[in-house]
Amino acid sequence: LEREMESTTAIGMNVAIPHAKSDVVKQPIVAVMKNNHGVKWESLDGSLPQLIFLIAVPNNSQDTHLKILQRLSKALMNDETRQSLINANSTTEIYNLLMKI
């Protein structure tokens, strides 16, 4: 929540990418949530995030979270990729789309 007070992680285009480093996290992980109606979240463009990607990495991972964030953000800037994820009907479909990134 403190991170959201600094600047929203809802980047717009119906996407949010909260990210954190923690001693509790033992290896980098990305969790994905999809909500067809969107989540009430202050975003940069006023859109409701339908795709939320949570990135969590260990404190000692140096710039791992930045590399993940950069790769994911670049892919999500592509309208076709983003829309395919929003329109996905199953976790398998989302997984397969993400494996192409």
How does this model look, in words?
- The chain is an alpha/beta fold.
- It has a single domain (2-99), classed as Mannitol-specific EII, Chain A, CATH 3.40.930.
- It is built from 4 helices and 5 strands.
- It has helices at residues 2-6, 64-76, 79-87, 91-99; strands spanning 10-12, 15-16, 19-22, 29-34, 51-58.
- Strands 1, 2, 3, 4 and 5 form a 5-stranded mixed sheet that branches.
- The longest helix is centred in the C-terminal third of the chain and has 13 residues, at 64-76.
- The relative contact order is 0.21.
In short:
With 101 residues, the protein is α/β, with parallel strands linked by helices. Helices cover 36% and strands 23% of the residues. The protein has helices at 2-6, 64-76, 79-87, 91-99, and strands at 10-12, 15-16, 19-22, 29-34, 51-58.
Keywords:
101 residues; alpha/beta; Mannitol-specific EII, Chain A; five-stranded mixed β-sheet; 4 helices; 23% strand; globular
Estimated helix fraction: 25-40%
Question: How many strands, which pairing sense, and closed or not: the largest β-sheet?
Answer: 5 strands, mixed
What CATH architecture would you give? 3-Layer(aba) Sandwich
Tally of alpha and pi helices:
4
